Amino acid sequence: PRAILLRDYRAPDYWIDKTDLHFSLAEEATDVTAELMLRRNAEAAAGAPLVLHGQDMELIEVAVDGRPLAPREYQLTDELLTLPQVPAQFKLTCKTRLKPAQNTSLEGLYKSHSMYCTQCEAEGFRKITYYLDRPDVMSEFTTTIDADRSRYPVLLSNGNLVDRGEGDGGRHWVRWHDPFKKPAYLFALVAGDLCALDDTFTTRSGREVTLRIFVEAKDLDKCDHAMASLKNAMAWDEKVYGREYDLDIFMIVAVDDFNMGAMENKGLNIFNTSCVLAKPETTTDAGFQRVEAVVAHEYFHNWSGNRVTCRDWFQLSLKEGFTVFRDAEFSADMGSPTVKRVEDVSLLRTLQFAEDAGPMSHPVQPASFIEISNFYTLTIYEKGAEVVRMLRNLLGAAQFRRGSDLYFERHDGQAVTIDDFVKAMEDASGRDLGQFKRWYSQAGTPVLEVDGVYDAGREEFTLTVSQSCPPTPDSETKLAFHIPLAVGLVGEAGPLALRLRGSDSGTGEADQGSCVLELTKPQQTFVFEGVAEKPVPSLLRGFSAPVKLHYDYSRDDLMRLMSRDSDGFCRWDASQQLGVAVIGDLIDRYGKTGELHREPADPRLLSAHRELLDDDSLDRAMVALMLRLPTEAYLSELADTVDVEAIHAARQHLRKALALALAEQWERVYHGNCSDEAYRADAGAIARRSLKNTALGYLALREDDNSLELCRTQFEQADNMTDVLAALACLVNGTSAAATAASTAALAAFYQRWQHEPLVVNQWLSVQAGCVAPGGLARVKALLQHPGFDIKNPNKVRALIGTFCNQNAINFHLKSGAGYRFLADQIIVLNRLNPQIAARMTTPLTKWQKYDPQRQILMKSELERILIEPDLSKDVYEVVSKSLR
Ligand code: HT7
Ligand code: ZN
Question: Where in this chain does the entry annotate a coiled-coil region (predicted)?
Answer without folding.
Answer: none
